[in-house]
């Protein structure tokens, strides 16, 4: 029998719609659409009281459609409409040169640089702490409670102090913000790596013992490679909260530049459209950073023999 | 050739008395202290393994055969009695990398290719890259895995993975091989095939092998000496010399000689009252 006979008559080509829904793009589009609809409804609903107030003060007649139209075109709305935010994004990203102080790309870069520096320092600190905790018994019992305690302090409470103290001893700009990022992002790395470095099973450890391998050899040949999947899971969390740390670090100083500064300036002047544009930029940045980390993860794990 | 001659000589001498002892165990006992009651894993074990011997430990689960092997390998420490490996303590023997150990599971490192798994002990022992390459190729060939060098462990079947782990144990050329139920998890057909390969390997290299199993045919087929053990407490009840012809094949399992030895092993196991509970 030929394969065709087994397969039977071939099915007709499915339509565009059913193909879209077979994959991931269909459901994704539906969710996006739902979010936009809810957002527009929210815009009208939240901005309506302000507008109705104004209509009544001016003794103006108003209709629902007129209200909806006005609600989506306010200069300082409670909640701006999506197209207003998109317009603002277009204005501050595409219409300006990236070096301009009014370009969101410029501000995003400022935030990104302290995010990446803080992420690098936090990852290093997290790994060093985990290695210490796994290898030194005293550290295992003494350090972990402090590491956990450090994360119970709200970052908003200590960020201004860190900035002020560091500013006094001559550190301004990038470094204090990176330190706040580091403070937030070392934690998941430590927790993940402690688990990862302890993940080799007893048989794999026994094997090393039969070779009378040194502690250093056990670390590099067994503990470290076993911990790599755990490391990447942690790094994906760490890079996202690193960005949060950088933005929070930009708030208390009234920083001149950065996504945080844009949020602050926007809230001073009630520029909600600008705030939302900055927020969306931050969200897009976080998404890209996590996706990039995922890409690096796939590359590294494929090289080290993970099943595709 | 020379190795084979030495091996056969060694085997001949086992029957006599002048053979060089590799493992000497005297009055060995091991008790695990647990929360409720102590577990007597080994009690009053006496045993000598000579150079070139293929010794099997056989017995039901929990009879201490794996524990005894782990004491020899210095993965476990006795609570009484003495043991020497190559004339020194197990710890010194381990530090001198005197033995290769094959575990129940392959214990391959999943991030390393087959070839690099075999090279692992060689890297740890500081061999040059050229030497590592040559040894990996040689021992993968020996276990019939030439051509699989660049594969990752998950791409291999269970039997192939276990063969990689045997190649890894052989790669640094220890004189003593400790094997803990290496074929326990494999199907009968693969197991037969690997048994035959292991026997040929032992004949070729003249290594001393200590082999843990709970299969009577496997023990009789492979061994020059069978140690029958019984549980609670783990002790030796019989030591059977097993002198089937060196060129035996799987078909030899149907011979009368084979049946007699298997019968004696079975009797020994029964005498240990190991099926009472």
UniProtKB/TrEMBL annotation, chain A:
It is a multi-pass membrane protein. InterPro entries: MetI-like (IPR000515), MetI-like_sf (IPR035906). Residues 104-297 form the ABC transmembrane type-1 domain. One of its GO terms (cellular component) is plasma membrane. Keywords: Cell membrane, Membrane, Transmembrane, Transmembrane helix, Transport. SUPFAM superfamilies: MetI-like. Coiled coil: none annotated. The keyword Iron does not apply. Pfam families: BPD_transp_1. It comes from the Bacteria. The chain crosses the membrane at residues 21-41, 104-131, 143-166, 178-197, 228-248, 273-296. Belongs to the binding-protein-dependent transport system permease family. This is ABC transporter permease. The lineage of its organism: Bacteria, Pseudomonadati, Pseudomonadota, Alphaproteobacteria, Rhodospirillales.
TrEMBL record, chain B:
The keyword Metal-binding does not apply. InterPro entries: AAA+_ATPase (IPR003593), ABC_transporter-like_ATP-bd (IPR003439), ABC_transporter-like_CS (IPR017871), ABC_transporter_ATP-bind (IPR050166), P-loop_NTPase (IPR027417). Residues 23-256 form the ABC transporter domain. PROSITE patterns: ABC_TRANSPORTER_1 (PS00211), ABC_TRANSPORTER_2 (PS50893). SMART domains: AAA. It comes from the Bacteria. Keywords: ATP-binding, Nucleotide-binding, Transport. One of its GO terms (molecular function) is ATP binding. Pfam families: ABC_tran. CDD domains: ABC_NrtD_SsuB_transporters. Belongs to the ABC transporter superfamily. This is ABC transporter ATP-binding protein. PANTHER family: ALIPHATIC SULFONATES IMPORT ATP-BINDING PROTEIN SSUB, TAURINE IMPORT ATP-BINDING PROTEIN-RELATED.
